[in-house]
Design brief:
Length: 261
């Protein structure tokens, strides 16, 4: 049988076994993919994570999340041409990898394909749907990041050409990567939900919301024309405040859904 040309990395500390199980199952249901779990050498997979749910476990060097993901992405065999990562608490929609990989196979024009994202709480209840679209690509260079990383897929060759993830970033390495990929070539928007992001307090991007927002602001500034960088605080400051406020509202909405059970 022909080996899969798609690879998904799942970074984990091995402490959220129920979420990890759901995440791996969703990848298997999304399409034919090679799955590499990246986790600390001291951690062990629970018995619920059976060998059919993953292909290889890669040792996390313990240098931060971006490094763990990069180690996983660069560990795939040469057969893997398209790739991405998925948080151990996030999900892919059934059949989504079949659709995204088909886009990249059918046209060399596209370096990245992405769609919409469903936000859920700890109880798998929908909080809202991120209705991204074609305009989110230019918007993320000046405004909020609305291009969902869960469910997206990019070319391995393009990742390598732009030197991969920035390992010095703690939160906004996905934004930085998406900006650089879309500056290097074209992205294709698929108007359907491809992935699910779990919004809960233990999530890195939720728990470290202020740090994430501030780091994203610094990343956006670096890609601005030099003439705009000195005045960028005119819109970056209110945008940071609005993004933090929006995050608090989403958290409250997720809590209210839990209370209503």
């Amino acid at each position: 049988m022909k080996p899969p040309d798609t690879g998904i990395v799942v970074p984990t500390l091995g402490t959220r076994s129920e979420y990890l199980l759901q995440s791996l199952q969703s990848i298997r249901a999304a399409g034919d993919a090679r799955i590499h779990i990246v986790m600390p050498a001291s951690a062990t997979l629970p018995g619920t994570i059976t060998p059919d749910l993953y292909d290889e476990v890669i040792a996390d060097p313990g240098l931060g999340l971006s490094t763990a993901i990069h180690v996983g992405l660069t560990s795939f065999p040469a057969d893997v041409k398209f790739m991405n990562w998925l948080g151990d608490d996030d999900l892919l929609k059934e059949g989504s990898l079949e659709r995204t990989s088909r886009v990249l196979r059918n046209s060399e024009k596209y370096l990245l394909v992405f769609g919409r994202c469903q936000y859920i709480n700890a109880k798998n209840q929908t909080i809202f749907i991120n209705r991204s679209g074609r305009l989110t690509i230019p918007l993320m260079r000046f405004g909020p990041q609305l291009v969902p990383q869960p469910g997206a897929l990019f070319r391995r060759a393009s990742y390598e050409k732009i030197n991969g993830l920035r390992l010095d970033l703690e939160w906004a390495f996905d934004l930085d990567l998406l900006i650089r990929l879309t500056r290097a070539g074209h992205a294709r928007f698929v108007p359907e939900i491809l992935g699910t992001f779990r919004w809960h307090d233990d999530s890195l991007s939720v728990g470290g919301r202020d740090g994430s927002v501030n780091e994203a602001s610094r990343v956006r500034k670096q890609f601005l024309p030099r003439a705009l960088q000195p005045v960028s605080e005119l819109w970056e400051y209110p945008m940071r405040k609005a993004t933090i406020l929006a995050g608090k509202r989403v958290s409250k909405r997720g809590i209210s859904r839990r209370i209503s059970l």
